[in-house]
Design brief:
Radius of gyration: 21 Å
Strand order of the largest sheet: 1-3-2-4-6-5-10-11-9-7-8
CATH architecture of the largest domain: Alpha-Beta Complex
Strand content: 5-15%
CATH class of the largest domain: Alpha Beta
Number of strands: 11
CATH topology of the largest domain: Amidase signature (AS) enzymes
Distance between the termini: 15 Å
CATH superfamily of the largest domain: Amidase signature (AS) domain
Bound molecules: glutamine
Structural class: alpha/beta
Helix content: 25-40%
Number of helices: 16
Shape: globular
Number of domains: 2
């Protein structure tokens, strides 16, 4: 096996035993990047120099010498943070995000900033202002989104692990479509300081990795209260790696009947149902649960997320950040900057959100959506009386073809039908590989847990993963 194929745990074992050096690891990953990046296009910016500096700094910690990729919506001091948007194309943040700071202190080295849908709005990376990332399993297909660059980089061996952000599915869906692991922690578990805001009541940062254990290792470092983010929760952080290794005897796995609907892709349905059977065979107890407000989740999300986005993105006016178009006066400068700087999907969402928040409509749209959000949250509270984790598909289909859905925003929005409710309820969720389509595309299983119970999620995911071979498969690029 080549070094670039290994994840965090695999590399750590070799590094700790001094069988390889951090230098060899970094060289292996960068030669892999040289070999495949032209085809995959996972990175907006490669940061080899920064990686060399970090290696030379020689921080010793849990992630000593581990090459990690960072989604390009997290601020990195001295390295541009573009959000894959023209409006931030040359923006260099004057400060470092808390997550990247913590990973750096733990010794990791950053390979680069990965591509995303502009401002994390999308499910395919086709909304990137720069280029579309390709799915390493089939270069004619999308890698999912919005953290498509991170997922593709992990799957193709262009890093050992990566950071993603998830507002409605953006860690889990690309992980699913690229055949890797993606963990969205509970809202408040990980500091969002330095994450460029999309929808602040939904956004959460998490790891995209090759194995469940690797996700636990990263979460250990990322999690915990941060005085710089008032929404980060002052709850204790357990050692998540301990949960990766416990059996699932007696764990109740809830299957929401509303998630196995007619018209669902039969290959996805079969893979997920087989995964539940597999979990049963190793001691878990399947139970049926009901999430009756599931049908309202996508509509609710697209009111709340666009409203928050319209407010968050008001700051890009050509004065404070990045790109500025020359206008004839101040107002014209604002208008020109925003007209030229934002792409079509971002504009669509700003307009939707501004409308939903406007006087006279606020109660009918935003107020109503908040109420439905509470109902969705209560559905989960009820379901978690009968179940310890809930199992669903991550995405209704495997990776689709580039261009297939870009003309129809609604079709694109529906690709998050199984992931969005989890953000609305603020719960932790993971996507892990659970099979392949006949055409050789990965399928993902989503496991959802109670608030701040990432441990049970990791425990169940790891036990399932270890009873299968799916996570060992890699694309032949
Ligand atoms: N695909 C969803 C959207 O377009 C979710 C994006 C995300 O989680 N950042 O909003």
């Amino acid at each position: 096996m080549e070094l670039f194929e290994l994840g965090i745990e695999g590399l750590k074992t070799l590094l700790d035993k001094k069988e390889v050096t951090p230098r060899e690891v970094l060289d292996s990953v960068f030669s892999r990047i040289d070999a495949v990046e032209e085809r995959v296009k996972a990175y907006v910016t490669l940061t080899r120099e920064k990686a060399e500096e970090m290696l030379a700094a020689g921080n010793t910690g849990v992630l000593s010498g581990i090459p990690i990729a960072v989604k390009d919506n997290m601020c990195t001091k001295g390295i541009r943070t573009t959000c894959s948007s023209k409006i931030l194309e040359n923006f260099i943040a004057p400060y470092e995000s808390t997550v990247t700071e913590r990973l750096a202190k733990a010794g990791s080295v950053f390979t680069g900033k990965t591509n995303l849908d502009e401002f994390a709005m999308g499910s395919s990376t086709e909304n990137s202002a720069f280029f579309t990332t390709k799915n390493p399993w089939d270069l004619g297909r999308i890698p999912g989104g919005s953290s498509g660059g991170s997922a593709a980089a992990v799957a193709s061996g262009e890093c050992a692990a990566a950071l993603g952000s998830d507002t409605g599915g953006s860690i889990r869906q690309p992980a699913s479509l690229c055949g890797v692991v993606g963990l969205k922690p509970t809202y408040g578990r990980v500091s969002r300081y330095g994450l460029v805001a999309f929808a602040s009541s939904l956004d959460q940062i998490g790891p995209i990795t090759k194995t469940v254990k690797d996700a636990a290792i990263m979460l250990n470092i990322m999690a915990g209260r941060d005085p710089l983010d008032s929404t980060s929760a002052p709850v204790p952080v357990p050692d998540f790696t301990k949960a990766a290794g416990m059996d699932v005897k007696g764990i109740r796995v809830g299957i929401p009947k509303e998630y196995f609907i007619e018209g669902m892709d039969p290959e996805v349905e079969k893979a997920v149902k087989d995964a539940v059977k597999k979990m049963e065979s190793i001691g878990a107890i399947p139970v049926e649960v009901s999430l009756p407000h599931t049908g309202y989740a996508v509509a609710t999300y697209y009111i709340l997320a666009t409203s928050e986005a319209s407010s968050n993105l008001a700051r890009y006016d050509g004065v404070k950040y990045g790109f500025r178009a020359g206008g004839k006066d101040l107002l014209d400068t604002y208008l020109q900057t925003r007209a030229q700087g934002f792409g079509p999907e971002v504009k669509r969402r700003i307009m939707l959100g501004t409308y939903a928040l406007s006087a006279g409509y606020y109660e009918a749209y935003y107020g109503r959506a908040q109420q439905v959000r509470t109902l969705i949250k209560r559905d989960f509270e009820e379901a978690f009386k009968a179940a310890d984790v809930i199992a669903t598909p991550t995405s209704p289909t495997a990776a689709f073809k580039i261009g297939e859905k870009s003309a129809d925003p609604l079709q694109m929005y529906l690709s998050d039908i199984f992931t969005i409710s989890i953000n609305l309820a603020g719960l932790p969720g993971i996507s892990i590989p659970c099979g392949f389509t006949g055409g050789g595309l990965p399928i993902g299983l989503q496991l959802i847990g109670r608030h701040f119970d990432e441990e049970t999620v990791i425990r169940a995911a790891h036990a399932y993963e270890q009873s299968t071979e799916w996570h060992k498969k890699r694309p032949s690029l």
